[in-house]
Design brief:
The protein is mostly helical. It has two domains: about 1-160, no CATH class; about 165-290, no CATH class. Helices cover about 50% and strands about 5% of the residues. It has 13 helices and three strands; from the N terminus they run βααααβαβαααααααα. The relative contact order is 0.13.
């Protein structure tokens, strides 16, 4: 399986350069509707966002973010030995960078939680989210792209993650893959995967908001709710009570990000023992059942 990066930034830079006066009748909105009709990667952009969105797009263009993303996706293919993975979809796998702007219809916590549990682009498409007003370095782009590319490969191999256990397995796998890509920026080979599957802990990294760690409360929740297909359960177990509350759902007594850190920790153990390709091929395959 190969992963291509669909260009979105230049087209949206041109859209944002147009006036937005007149709302739905404005030149900007009309241009966006015409562009989005043939370009799925534009769907998450807010065409009427203010100057901050345009500035973020321009900064990403200056960074060559799409080139950086393409290199990260290629690194994920190599680490995962993607060409040998069994595919459940014949469709080509594609990623696109999307600048998201908080506003009336887009709230950060709820958008992020739904992205991590259900995705944003579809079964064979992935959107790499970049939030406006937040500076992004090339390292940041590599990380979020590698993580989304790994989600895409996981879904293409096993089908969309529906159960709570599958969601955590996919997110743990994605975090380990992203760690590996960041740990080997200059040369990534399949042979190097085992060596970089267990990088030095970096509490300041973007990965899951802290050092990977097992959590008994998450293990207990997986025992009870592991096969649940309810989005509320997936969000509460993966991201914790605060994220669930942002949607108006009940919590489970799980701390913020504890499920991500738990899945990250267990995926690292599995990758260290069996390698990243096996982690992706096996899906959940019991590794997420192991007690801390």
């Amino acid at each position: 399986m190969r992963i291509a990066v669909a260009p979105t930034l230049a087209r949206m830079a041109a859209v944002y350069a147009l006036p937005r006066d007149g709302g739905a009748a404005s030149p900007r909105f009309r241009a966006y509707v015409q562009a989005a009709a043939t370009d799925w990667g534009l769907s998450a952009f807010n065409p009427m966002a203010g100057a901050h969105a345009a500035a973020t797009v321009q900064a990403l263009v200056a960074l060559d973010a799409e080139g950086v993303a393409a290199a990260a996706a290629a690194a994920v293919e190599t680490l995962a030995e993607a060409r040998s993975l069994p595919a459940t979809t014949p469709a080509p796998l594609r990623l696109a960078l999307a600048v998201l702007s908080p506003g009336l219809w887009t709230e950060r916590v709820t958008a992020d939680s739904l992205h991590r549990t259900h995705g944003m682009g579809g079964w064979h498409r992935g959107l790499v989210p970049v939030w406006s007003r937040e500076p992004m370095t090339a390292r940041d782009v590599r990380h979020v792209t590698a993580r989304e590319a790994a989600r895409l490969l996981w879904d293409a191999t096993h089908g969309p993650a529906r159960s709570v256990r599958a969601v955590l397995a996919r997110e743990g796998t994605a975090l380990v893959v992203a760690d590996a890509v960041l740990a080997s920026l200059h040369r990534v080979t399949a042979d190097s995967a085992a060596a970089i599957a267990m990088p030095t802990d970096d509490p300041g990294s973007m990965a899951s908001g802290g050092t990977p760690a097992p959590d008994p409360a998450v293990s207990d929740a997986l025992t009870i709710l592991g096969e649940s297909h309810a989005t509320a359960d997936a969000v509460a177990v993966l991201l914790g009570d605060d994220a669930a509350a942002a949607h108006g759902w009940s919590g489970l007594g799980i701390g913020a990000g504890a499920g991500e850190r738990h899945a990250h920790w267990q995926a690292r153990q599995a990758a260290h023992r069996h390698g990243i390709p096996a982690l992706l091929r096996d899906g959940t395959a019991g590794w997420l059942l192991a007690s801390p």
